[in-house]
């Protein structure tokens, strides 16, 4: 695991000029990243090319925005199009999962010999937690949970993701019955005192990380309501669906409501090399239904102006349909959808050609998107650099800039 | 092997020379005493008989003699120490000294931290070589020992103790299996190997080509068998196995080179992956009810492969990564098929294979020093050079010269100042000009070794140490009536591993504080019960003590492996006085805070 | 069924005849008279070739569909075919006409993907079904809707019993239903659930093709056993049922778990099943298997990626449709052009 010990060293020193830091502390923007791992097909979703050589069997349907069409598999999302922005001219570099997933998640910055943080860790660092005190980076995923330090790259373990396995609360969440809350206060005060003494004369990296996880743990102990499933209504469950992604997106809504800065939801097994069209029917409906419900709910709760929502994968899928009636990996031309804070509503930006094979106008890499999103969140990238022990590192790829047409 | 004949510069009494002799013996030098009146050195040099005596004992090749000036006043009854030192290369100094020199060359004028004090050293060496902290009695004994040699003796003691084999078995289990699962036979294999100090290259041969017939070796098959067992509908993970062999035994992660030449690392080519892969495609798990095993199909033809970037058809036979192809031998019609695994086992772990020897040297360095000279440990390549190239080469050649003797290398590392350095800078003294005070500790990089690096405690080390510290070890060691291990111990072990180990397949090579671990420490009932009074445990012993000052000593020695300073002692006494009405709880909470603080949970 | 039939005469061998087509096709079938070879495509067209002796001549296509045309069936006692596409349109054509135009068509016969059509043995009625879970019966002559009823699951395949008394549907979940058309009720269900699997979060598989033998005593169902998502691994599999008692006679699992779906299985008058499967390039093959046997008597991997099999009325020739479309993550341009897939129809001969 490379984590914070990557070549290039560690960087936990503070670097924000005080006035800028204050500004950001007041910033209540949040982010929801929905990651469809394996590569959702853009041709079966955001950028349909019906009745063409590579278009597949499906029809395109109109959406709530006249002139914008999506694939019929997004029938619920189509009704929320007026909140969304879709970039159809995404063109990225890597067609492999093994490297591509990390590169997209990191914004594929220039190689400077350090391991860049994933978007969630970057936001946890740049914006910090919200005033709610909830952990800044929570990851809702299938299977196992735990603290995933490796997302944080050179930033250090502290900026990793707190992963909730299948959305479940971490074990040992409740204060042990044998300890009263005063005792708990006292013993933790002592523990912190010991740690302060330990830290004298040593690098603070590990002490900071350790303190941080205890703080998080104690905050979570106070917010066990986050995991109280009985408080979801039947209507919620029906609208989002009781399948895995439905439950996880419903939990994501609540997690955002508690004030977590960055929530990531992962869905896996989208890599339909074979039988892509039946797979897309089965999978995309599992995304479409809860995603539309989520956008609707965020809007109704007046949260959509503050929450930046992003839907993406590590690449799209080939226009060419292989003999297993599947599509393979295609970073050359694909789509990313977004909504919310700082993002224009009801637009499509960028175009692929009629065949859907390549980007027709200006192609954008993930670095451009990172610039765009940091700007949407209120972080001015040209003022922000990481300081990795004296090595300045741009937050997003220095040859890229924000995409103006996506921003309000 | 060359030896040299050396005579101690000045004569000394018999008694005084004993520790010197012992130290030399530890360094595999031959040392003896000769009545000084039998010398002068010139006599020795020309005394063919004497030289011949040493020759027959030690297969001495060239004998070179260092001349020392002896006092002309030869006094009867004094002895001179005569040594025959193995000479490995032109540089005649001891390995730890040379290590330290090469590390110091990188200090760039900065002042390193001083050597660790006895308490810091003791805790660290116990954790590294015994897998746990010492008891309060062991600690007292060591701290109060006035023998200037006590550190070397402690190193020897720990290397010879049964805890060494257990520690190394636990450690290498995690290094080699990365929490994929365990097996009794595998555990036994590892334990046995370390008990006998099996050379590393032999271990690797046995793992790469496991022998199901040999009862002592069959457990080694687990390395393969676990990785290629069926996992639902997923294809068997031969690529994962190939990758791990590269990572763990050669320090090269070839994962991205499966489908094409590595995009960033020029040294890693697709054929390096595919060549090794061609061997592993032929093996499958054949697990009996009780014994892990693999079977191997004979390799009949080369493996074809295509880069996803280049449709040219390539092919390769079995190949050690970065080596040349091993020719598939002609197999006679009736002859037993040639085993590729056997070929691999004979070709890969060899002294000629630079990556093989550098990998083990690097990993052993990492174990003791908390960071690889090449870091990450599985990314040796020309764009990721070692922080101290000469040092890595030195260690690699030394370990080869010592036949991959792991214990020997660990000893050399432990004897160095680099290892024994403190992990903290002392609090700045009044002297504002002191260089130590001027070092900004935040800027110190781990690969400088100006400070000793803090190291992660494995879940197992935390468990053993917590049980010892809280005095619950003896109770939990009792097997049940029918010889099964204690259920509470089994459950505690399971919980500690669940709370503090990494996910499967994630190497545990750095400190990784986790919310899961924090919640476990805060709220788990079994953990908290360790701090409730039970006959003979720490809380019980402390509650029986009438003097709060002595209580403080016993508590700190048990948990922190040191005595409290005055401030700490006074604090604890004040705390106990304040919470007099709930003394047991008060002690337990103070102990808990110690057990969950950095000083306990980190190997520093 | 003649158990003593010598089967070696039924090992198909390739002839030199290979018909190339520049896009991918779903199936290629000989007309009942044997003078035409009709294929429906991924390119919204229906392709026609005139067959005479060993010669084939390409004729003008039937145009007017959209996207994919997965469904094609001949209407007995006529020179007509019915076709359906993935946008929901059904059309009937005179396939022998110079330039066929639809005899009738219905653009909105279904909402979306029509996955199966079947024609009653008397040529009067057409059944259709697909993603919208409605089974519809149409008049073959003029396309009037005769009857419709909801189907519990997506319909993947349809066929009529040769007696005309039953309409049989196969769905996504591996359930085969024997429908009484008059009452729109299920007489019984046959269990083909090995052809379905919920693999992690994806519903995989389905009964991809149904066909009866000539006397209706045997039903063959083609699909993939233990189908998975991602690379769609699973074993090509044909299930043969005894129609009278509804019992499974033979589970014909073939090849390895990367040989894809069995897309087509037809009965030869001599009583054996001929089937083909297709997956990634080079995977899948043709086999012949009598249900009484435990093993196929013929299998050949020399022509992989077969999508459909059609027996010429002369009983000797077989049209094997093969998909030719490479896989891969790279962007391989040929003379600057991004390549799609194509098809070949191999004429085999007993």
List keywords for this structure.
heterotrimer, A: about 400 residues, alpha/beta, Alkaline Phosphatase, subunit A, 9-stranded mixed beta sheet, two-stranded antiparallel sheet, about 15% strand, disordered N terminus, C: about 350 residues, mainly beta, Methylamine Dehydrogenase, Chain H, 4-stranded antiparallel beta sheet, globular
Overall radius of gyration of chain B: 28 Å
Gyration radius of chain A (Cα, Å) is 22 Å
Average pLDDT confidence of chain A is 89
Distance between the termini of chain B: 38 Å
Strand content of chain B is 5-15%
The N- to C-terminal Cα distance of chain A equals 39 Å
> What is the averaged pLDDT score of chain B?
81
CATH architecture of chain A, by name, is 3-Layer(aba) Sandwich
Q: What structural class should be given to the helix and strand makeup of chain B? A: alpha+beta
DSSP helix fraction of chain B = 40-55%
Total strands of chain B: 10
- Percent strand of chain A equals 15-25%
What topology, given as strand order, has the largest sheet of chain B? Answer: 2-4-1-3
**CATH fold-level label of chain A:** Alkaline Phosphatase, subunit A
Give the oligomeric state of the chains in this entry, treating copies of one chain as homo and distinct chains as hetero: heterotrimer
Helical segment tally of chain B?
29
Question: Explain this structure to me?
Answer:
- The complex is a heterotrimer of chains A (408), B (604) and C (350).
- With 408 residues, chain A is an alpha/beta fold.
- Chain A has helices at residues 18-26, 97-106, 119-126, 181-199, 205-222, 234-240, 244-257, 276-300, 366-377; strands spanning 30-36, 60-62, 69-71, 84-90, 137-141, 146-148, 161-165, 262-267, 307-312, 316-317, 329-330, 334-340, 347-349, 385-388, 391-394.
- Chain A has a 9-stranded mixed beta sheet, sandwiched between helices. In chain A, strands 2-3 form a two-stranded antiparallel sheet.
- Chain B is α+β, with helices and mostly antiparallel strands and 604 residues long.
- Chain B is built from 29 helices and 10 strands.
- In chain B, the strands form 4 sheets. A 4-stranded mixed beta sheet of chain B has the order 2-4-1-3, with helices on both faces. Chain B has a two-stranded antiparallel sheet with strand order 5-6. Chain B has a two-stranded antiparallel sheet with strand order 7-8.
- In chain C, 0% of the residues lie in helices and 53% in strands.
- In chain C, the strands form 9 sheets. A 4-stranded antiparallel beta sheet of chain C has the order 1-32-29-28, with no helix packed on it. In chain C, strands 2-3-4-5 form a 4-stranded antiparallel beta sheet, with no helix packed on it.
- Classes of the chains: A alpha/beta (408), B alpha+beta (604), C mainly beta (350).
- At the B-C interface, loops of B face loops of C.
């Amino acid at each position: 695991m490379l984590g914070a010990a990557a070549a290039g060293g560690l960087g936990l020193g503070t670097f924000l000029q005080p006035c800028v830091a204050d500004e950001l502390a007041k910033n209540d923007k949040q982010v929801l990243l929905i990651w469809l791992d394996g590569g959702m097909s853009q041709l079966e979703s955001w950028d349909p090319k019906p009745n063409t050589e590579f278009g597949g069997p499906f029809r395109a349907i109109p959406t709530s925005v006249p002139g914008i069409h999506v694939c019929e598999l997004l029938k619920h999302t189509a009704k929320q199009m007026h909140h969304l922005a879709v970039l159809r001219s995404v063109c990225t570099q890597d067609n492999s999962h093994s490297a591509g997933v990390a590169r997209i998640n990191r914004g594929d910055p220039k190689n400077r010999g350090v391991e860049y943080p994933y978007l969630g860790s970057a936001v946890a660092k740049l914006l910090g937690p919200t005033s709610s005190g909830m952990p800044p980076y929570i990851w809702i995923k299938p299977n196992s949970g735990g603290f995933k330090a490796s997302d944080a790259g050179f930033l250090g373990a502290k900026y990793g993701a707190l992963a909730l396995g299948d959305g479940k609360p971490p074990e040992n969440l409740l204060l042990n019955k044998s300890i009263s809350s005063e005792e708990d206060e006292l013993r933790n005060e002592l523990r912190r005192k010991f740690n302060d003494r330990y830290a004298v004369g040593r690098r603070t990296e590990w002490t900071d990380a350790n303190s941080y996880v205890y703080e998080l743990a104690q905050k979570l102990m106070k917010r066990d309501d986050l995991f109280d499933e009985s408080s979801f209504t039947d209507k919620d469950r029906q609208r989002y669906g009781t399948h895995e992604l439905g439950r996880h997106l419903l939990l994501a809504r609540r997690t955002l409501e508690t004030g977590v800065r960055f929530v990531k939801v992962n869905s896996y097994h989208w890599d339909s090399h074979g039988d892509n069209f039946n797979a897309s029917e089965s999978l995309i409906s599992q995304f479409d239904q809860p995603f539309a419900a989520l956008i609707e709910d965020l809007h109704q709760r007046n949260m959509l102006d503050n929450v930046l929502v992003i839907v993406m994968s590590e690449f799209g899928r080939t226009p060419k349909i292989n003999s297993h009636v599947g599509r393979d990996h295609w970073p050359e031309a694909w789509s990313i959808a977004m909504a919310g804070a700082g993002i224009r509503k009801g637009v499509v930006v960028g175009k692929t050609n009629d065949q859907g094979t390549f980007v027709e106008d200006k192609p954008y890499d993930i670095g451009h998107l990172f610039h765009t999103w940091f700007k949407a969140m209120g972080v001015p990238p040209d003022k922000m650099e990481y300081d990795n022990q004296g090595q300045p590192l741009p937050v997003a790829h220095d040859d890229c800039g924000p995409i103006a047409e996506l921003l309000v | 092997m060359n030896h040299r004949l050396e005579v101690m510069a000045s004569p000394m009494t018999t008694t005084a020379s004993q520790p010197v002799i012992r130290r030399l013996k530890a360094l595999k030098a031959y040392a003896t005493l000769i009545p000084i009146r039998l010398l002068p050195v010139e006599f020795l040099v020309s005394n063919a008989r004497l030289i011949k005596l040493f020759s027959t004992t030690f297969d001495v090749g060239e004998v070179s003699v260092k001349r020392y000036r002896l006092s002309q006043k030869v006094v009867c009854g004094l002895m001179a120490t005569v040594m025959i030192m193995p000479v490995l290369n032109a540089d005649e100094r001891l390995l730890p000294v040379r290590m330290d020199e090469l590390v110091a060359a990188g200090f760039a004028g900065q002042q390193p931290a001083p050597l660790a004090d006895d308490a810091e050293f003791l805790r660290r060496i116990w954790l590294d070589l015994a897998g746990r902290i010492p008891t309060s009695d062991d600690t007292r004994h060591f701290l109060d020992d006035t023998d200037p040699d006590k550190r070397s003796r402690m190193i020897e003691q720990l290397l010879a103790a049964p805890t060494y084999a257990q520690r190394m078995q636990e450690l290498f289990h995690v290094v080699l299996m990365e929490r994929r699962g365990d097996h009794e036979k595998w555990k036994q294999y590892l334990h046995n190997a370390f008990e006998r100090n099996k050379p590393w290259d032999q271990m690797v041969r046995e793992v790469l080509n496991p022998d199901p017939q040999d009862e002592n070796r069959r457990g080694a098959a687990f390395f393969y068998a676990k990785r290629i067992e069926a996992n639902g509908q997923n294809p068997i993970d031969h690529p994962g196995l190939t990758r791990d062999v590269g990572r763990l035994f050669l320090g090269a992660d070839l994962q991205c080179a499966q489908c094409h030449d590595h995009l960033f690392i020029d040294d890693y080519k697709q054929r390096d992956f595919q060549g090794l892969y061609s061997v592993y495609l032929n093996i499958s798990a054949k697990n009996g009810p009780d014994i892990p095993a693999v079977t191997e199909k004979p390799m009949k033809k080369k493996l074809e492969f295509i880069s996803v970037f280049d449709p040219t058809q390539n092919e390769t036979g079995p190949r050690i990564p970065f080596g040349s192809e091993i020719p598939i031998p002609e197999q006679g019609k009736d002859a037993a098929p040639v085993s590729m695994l056997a070929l691999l086992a004979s070709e890969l772990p060899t002294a000629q294979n630079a990556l093989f020897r550098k990998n083990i040297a690097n990993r052993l360095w990492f174990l003791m020093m908390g960071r690889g000279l090449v870091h990450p440990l599985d990314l040796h390549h020309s764009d990721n050079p070692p922080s101290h190239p000469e040092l890595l080469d030195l260690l690699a050649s030394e370990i080869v010269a010592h036949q991959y003797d792991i214990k020997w290398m660990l000893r050399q590392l432990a004897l160095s100042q680099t290892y024994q350095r403190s992990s903290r800078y002392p609090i700045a003294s009044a002297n504002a000009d002191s260089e130590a005070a001027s070092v900004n500790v935040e800027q110190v990089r781990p690969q400088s070794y100006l400070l000793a690096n803090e190291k992660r405690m494995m879940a197992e080390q935390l468990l053993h140490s917590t049980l010892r510290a809280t005095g619950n070890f003896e109770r939990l060691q009792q097997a049940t009536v029918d010889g099964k291990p204690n259920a509470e111990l089994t459950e505690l072990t399971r919980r500690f591993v669940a709370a503090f180990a990494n996910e499967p397949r994630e190497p545990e090579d750095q400190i990784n504080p986790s919310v899961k671990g924090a919640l476990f420490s805060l709220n788990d009932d079994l953990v908290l019960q360790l701090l409730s009074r039970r006959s003979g445990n720490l809380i019980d012993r402390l509650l029986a003590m009438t003097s709060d000052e002595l209580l403080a000593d016993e508590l700190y020695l048990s948990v922190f492996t040191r005595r409290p300073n005055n401030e700490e002692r006074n604090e604890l006494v004040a705390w106990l006085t304040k919470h007099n009405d709930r003394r047991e709880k008060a002690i337990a909470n103070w102990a808990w805070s110690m057990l969950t603080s950095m000083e306990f949970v980190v190997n520093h | 069924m003649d158990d003593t039939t010598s089967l070696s005469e039924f090992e198909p061998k390739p002839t030199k005849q290979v018909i190339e087509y520049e896009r991918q096709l779903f199936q290629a079938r000989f007309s009942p008279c044997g003078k035409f070879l009709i294929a429906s495509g991924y390119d919204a067209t229906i392709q026609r070739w005139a067959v005479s002796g060993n010669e084939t001549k390409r004729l003008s296509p039937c145009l007017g569909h959209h996207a994919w045309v997965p469904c094609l069936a001949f209407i007995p006692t006529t020179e007509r075919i019915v076709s359906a596409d993935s946008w929901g349109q059904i059309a009937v054509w005179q396939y022998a006409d110079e330039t066929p135009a639809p005899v009738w068509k219905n653009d909105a016969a279904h909402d979306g993907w029509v996955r199966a059509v079947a024609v009653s043995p008397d040529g009067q009625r057409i059944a259709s079904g697909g993603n919208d879970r409605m089974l519809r019966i149409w008049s073959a002559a003029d396309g009037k809707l005769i009857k419709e009823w909801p189907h519990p699951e997506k319909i993947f395949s349809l066929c009529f019993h040769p007696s005309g008394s039953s309409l049989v549907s196969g769905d996504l979940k591996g359930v085969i239903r024997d429908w009484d058309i008059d009452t729109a009720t299920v007489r019984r269900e046959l269990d083909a659930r090995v052809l379905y699997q919920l693999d992690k979060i994806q519903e995989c598989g389905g009964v991809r093709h149904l066909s009866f033998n000539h006397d209706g005593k045997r039903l063959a169902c083609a699909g993939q056993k233990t189908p998975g998502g991602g690379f769609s691994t699973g074993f090509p599999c044909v299930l043969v049922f005894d129609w009278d008692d509804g019992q499974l006679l033979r589970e014909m699992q073939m090849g390895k778990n990367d040989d894809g779906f069995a897309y087509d299985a037809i009965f030869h008058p001599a009583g054996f099943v001929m089937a083909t499967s297709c997956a990634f390039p080079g995977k899948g093959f043709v086999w012949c298997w009598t249900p009484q046997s435990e093993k196929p008597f013929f299998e050949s991997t020399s022509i992989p990626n077969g999508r459909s099999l059609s027996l010429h009325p002369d009983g000797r020739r077989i049209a094997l449709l093969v998909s030719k479309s490479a896989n891969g993550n790279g962007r391989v341009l040929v003379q600057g052009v991004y390549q799609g897939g194509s098809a070949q129809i191999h004429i085999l001969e007993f």
